[in-house]
TrEMBL record:
This is RING-type E3 ubiquitin transferase. It holds the Pfam family GIDE. It comes from Rhynocoris fuscipes. It is found in: Mitochondrion outer membrane. The chain crosses the membrane at residues 229-250. PROSITE patterns: ZF_RING_2. It is a multi-pass membrane protein.
Length: 337
């Protein structure tokens, strides 16, 4: 089997094709939904919306904390409602091919959040579960990189370990108060009478983004197009590989059939030649094969060494010698002169 390379390539291609087509379907589904979603203008009346329209709405407004906002850790004059603190380690690591390459590892990621709402005109919508959003846009308010001070010993150890630390990056991101946000989700009236937006119960994507709807649609469209081309590309490669593998298997089969045909032909001519060479009439009884009692004895059976059968009968006798019943390990043509 020389097809392992192609088969492994086909397997990997199928996996990538599957992932790309899933992303393509996801983005095309999201795009469709956002295009059809109910856009709430200024001071909309939720009670006028049908059940279906409430399932997926777009609302734009200014972010405002309900209660006390979060103060920026490094920039106390900036307040927000969702805070993400990330600590990343930057290192240079030797990869499989022996080269040193930059590497980033997230050591820690923490979120802080306070309840918040989107306000436009008189209308207030409370935003629930922002961390459940498919897209949650935050602004970077602080980013710091501390270079590691490595001793000579650290360098030596790092060289042998294959990992050398370069430094630590700390990033603080905020969903800032006052920023204009487009939120897309399911709208409902909470038990406390407030209007709220939550992750859609139908499994539709939930967005909390700084992009206006037109930009979000464009971004989804771009991603959809990218993954469509990738799906075509890997689909095409898959088909090409399948054709190559099928063609090779077919050729191998054809060659095998031709070989068998040739072997059969040779066998037939050999048999015929033997038949012509035999002069069956003037053989004595103990010169004839013990099985068919017609052809001359032509085969020696090993290990026992009995010369007792003709070549025709030897094809069917593979286990025991017909004379002494000892197991057959080998057979060969016997030439009695
Ligand atoms: Zn025979
Ligand atoms: Zn024997």
């Amino acid at each position: 089997m020389d097809n392992w390379g192609e088969l492994i390539a086909l397997g990997i291609d199928t996996i990538i094709f599957g992932i790309c087509s899933r992303f393509y379907l996801k983005y095309s589904y999201s795009l469709n939904l956002v295009e059809r979603a109910q856009r709430l203008g200024i001071n909309p009346d939720i009670s006028n919306l049908s059940e279906e329209e409430r399932n997926y709405v777009i609302y734009q407004g200014d972010v405002k904390a309900i209660g006390k906002p979060i103060k920026g850790l490094n920039t106390p004059d900036i307040t927000g409602v969702v805070q993400r603190l990330t600590i990343r380690e930057h290192a240079i690591a030797r990869n499989a091919s022996g080269f040193w390459a930059d590497q980033k590892n997230t050591i820690q990621e923490t979120y802080n959040l306070v309840p918040f709402m989107l306000k436009r005109g008189e209308m207030i919508i409370h935003i629930l579960d922002p961390l459940g959003a498919d897209i949650l846009d935050l602004d970077t308010v602080h980013n710091k990189f501390d270079n590691s001070s490595l001793s000579v010993m650290d360098h030596v150890v790092g060289f042998f370990n294959g990992v050398r630390q370069r430094g630590i990056e700390t990033t603080e991101e905020l969903l800032k108060e006052g920023s204009v946000i487009t939120a897309i989700g399911e709208v409902s009236k909470g038990l406390d009478g407030n209007i709220q937006l939550s992750p859609p119960s139908q499994g539709y994507p939930y967005f909390i983004t700084s992009m206006p709807v037109s930009s979000l649609l464009r971004k989804l469209e771009e991603q959809k197009t990218t993954y469509r081309w990738l799906t075509y590309l890997f689909g095409g490669i898959g088909i090409a590989l399948a054709v190559i593998i099928t063609r090779r298997l077919w050729l191998e089969r054809q060659a095998k059939l031709r070989d068998e045909e040739l072997k059969k032909k040779l066998e037939a001519t050999r048999k015929e030649r033997r038949q012509n060479a035999r002069s069956g009439e003037n053989l004595s009884e103990n010169e004839r094969c013990v099985v068919c009692r017609e052809n001359p004895k032509e085969i020696i059976i090993l290990e026992c060494g009995h010369v007792c059968i003709c070549e025709d009968c030897s094809e069917g006798i593979t286990k025991d010698c017909p004379v002494c019943r000892s197991p057959i390990t080998n057979k060969a043509a016997a030439f009695i002169s």
